[in-house]
Amino acid sequence: MLPQLQPPTLTVTAVAFGGGNVQQQQVHLTLHAVNPNARDIDVRGIDCALELEGQPFATGASDAAFRLRSLGESDFGMNVTANLNNALPALLSGISHSTVDYRITGRIHLGAGLVRSIAFDHKGRIRL
User: Fold this and answer.
1) Which residues are CB-neighbours of 14 under 8 A, at least 6 positions away?
2) Where are the domains of the chain?
3) For 36, 82, 84, 99, which has the most beta carbons within 10 A of its beta carbon?
């Protein structure tokens, strides 16, 4: 019997653009994680893909380990690579109301236990 783990809720709280060009832009995401489980989760890394307004925007992976406390919350950052060509229409449509819908999907890789990873899929809105 494998332990039943609910995926943590990941919310994008900030997007900061770094250097690059239109096809490859470095982006730093700040994420807020909420652990709905009654046990600590040792995170050893995260792979994710971010969509804006239904369009692929960025992908990336982080190997920064941290512990998400039982029923706790934590903020963390990760760098991803974005393609602004894909998301330009979404960004332009969001300028008028200063927010865009996003969807973040991926896997949280665990540092311990029988379960080695947890898939996640969350939607929300982010202010531009």
Assistant:
1) 28, 29, 30
2) 9-122
3) 82
Decide: residue 79, CB within 10 A, 0-12 exposed, 13-18 middle, 19+ buried: middle
- DSSP, collapsed to helix, strand or coil, labels residue 91 as helix
The proportion of the chain whose per-residue pLDDT surpasses 70, expressed as a percent, equals: 88
Closest CA to 61 of 44, 39, 85: 44
Record the pTM.
0.85
Q: What angle do CA 51, 54, 56 make, to 5 degrees?
A: 40
Rounded Cα distance between 30 and 10, Å, is 10
pLDDT category of residue 89 using cuts at 50, 70 and 90? low
Cα 63 to Cα 27, 66, 107: the distances in Å are: 16, 9, 12
According to the CATH classification, is domain 9-122 in 2.60.40.1820?
yes
Residue 69 to residue 108: CA distance in whole angstroms: 15
At 57, the amino acid letter reads: F
